[in-house]
Amino acid sequence: MRNPTETIGNLIDKQTVSFISSVDENGYPNTKAMLAPVKREGIKTFYWHTNSPSMRIKQYLNNQKACIYFYEKRFFRGVMLKGTMEVIDDLNIKKDIWKDEFSMYYDGGVDGGDYIILKFTAENGRYYSNFKSENFEVE
Question: pTM score > 0.85 for this model?
Answer without folding.
Answer: yes
